[in-house]
Specification:
This protein is α+β, with helices and mostly antiparallel strands and 80 residues long. The chain is built from two helices and five strands; from the N terminus they run ααβββββ. Strand 3 and strand 4 (54-60) form a beta hairpin.
């Protein structure tokens, strides 16, 4: 699954275009490397997202193309 789609489906970022902009600006990294929007994700990858001066790290637990709002949080686990 693409990084930008995962961020949108998991509701870490509300819109895919915003997720795309975050990645293009270098504010998203996967496994310690700055990632592009089309980066392919695997279960177990660590995603770091920088929101202003705050960084959020999550581990990918599931890759689903569509989920309901209630189960979106099951797609990842917050590390910090």
């Amino acid at each position: 699954m693409r990084l930008d789609k995962f961020l949108k489906v998991s509701r870490l970022i509300k819109r895919r275009t915003v997720a795309n902009d975050f990645a293009e600006a270098g504010r998203v990294s996967v496994n310690g490397k700055i990632a592009k929007p089309g980066t392919k994700l695997k279960i177990g990858d660590i995603i770091s997202i920088t929101f202003g001066d705050q960084e959020t790290k999550v581990i990918v637990k599931e890759l689903n193309n569509a989920v309901k709002k209630e189960s979106a949080a099951q797609m990842y686990e917050i590390i910090s």
